[in-house]
């Protein structure tokens, strides 16, 4: 696969993680650099692992994953989005939920990397080695996620709780876009 195509593929796969990172950065829940790096690392890690898993599974799970991936992403992103919207409406000053911890981080990582699983299946069908593309996809996604978190924090500092509300709505809209796109073949 030519490097130019690979970079474009990596950027397109990283866009969901970038958008989710903006939302997570904006709500003020990522208190430390460590949390920001951890979230970006996990987004990149899952984007690295999913093509390898898809490539390994090949045709065995293609139809099953293709029929459910959009629903999984929609449900995970919507649940986390609703949680962020609820947090935005609370009057307390301290945000308790952190997208860089536990099941929330895993849910976000899976939801933003399901398309990479399908790309792995595609690479297997095309008989393209998966390790190098997976490395590029993971690194690009991690970098895009860090940029998204920083951008989100700047927006959150400027617009406060309204950015947390917007971030929650953005997660739900991303999930809805994924669902509608798959249902209508967009």
Task: Give the topology, please.
Elements: H1 3-26, H2 33-57, H3 62-89, H4 102-111, H5 114-125, H6 131-159, H7 161-184
Helix pairs in contact: 1-2, 1-6, 1-7, 2-4, 2-5, 2-6, 3-4, 3-5, 3-7, 6-7
Walkthrough of the structure:
It is globular, with a radius of gyration of 16 Å. The relative contact order is 0.25. It has one domain (3-179). The protein is built from 7 helices and no strands. Helix 3 (62-89) packs across helix 4. The protein has 186 residues and is mostly helical.
Features:
186 residues; mainly alpha; globular
Short structural summary:
82% of the residues lie in helices and 0% in strands. It is an all-alpha fold and 186 residues long.
User: Uncertain regions: pLDDT < 50 for 5+ in a row?
Assistant: none
Query: How many H/I helical runs?
Result: 7
Mean residue pLDDT: 81
Radius of gyration, CA atoms, in whole angstroms: 16 Å
Taken together, the total number of domains comes to: 1
Largest sheet, if any?
Answer: none
Task: Give the SSE order as H and E letters.
Answer: HHHHHHH
The portion of residues forming beta strands comes to: under 5%
Tell me the number of strands. 0
Secondary structure category: mainly alpha
Amino- and carboxy-terminal Cα gap:
24 Å
Helix coverage percent of residues? Answer: over 70%
């Amino acid at each position: 696969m030519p490097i130019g195509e690979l970079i474009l593929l990596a950027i397109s796969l990283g866009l969901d993680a970038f958008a989710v990172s903006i939302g997570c950065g904006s709500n003020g829940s990522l208190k430390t650099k460590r949390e920001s790096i951890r979230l970006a690392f996990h987004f990149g890690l899952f984007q690295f692992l999913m093509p390898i898993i898809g490539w390994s599974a090949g045709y065995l799970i293609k139809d099953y994953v293709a029929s459910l991936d959009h629903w999984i992403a929609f449900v995970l992103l919507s649940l986390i989005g609703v949680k962020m919207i609820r947090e935005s409406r609370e009057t307390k000053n301290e945000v308790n939920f952190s997208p860089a911890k536990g099941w929330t981080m895993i849910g976000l990582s899976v939801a933003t990397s399901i398309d990479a699983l399908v790309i792995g299946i595609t690479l297997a069908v095309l008989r393209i080695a998966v390790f190098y593309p997976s490395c590029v996809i993971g690194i690009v996604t991690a970098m895009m996620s860090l940029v998204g978190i920083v951008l989100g924090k700047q927006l959150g500092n400027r617009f406060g709780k309204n950015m947390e509300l917007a971030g929650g709505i953005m997660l739900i809209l991303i999930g809805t876009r994924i669902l509608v796109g798959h249902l209508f073949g967009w």
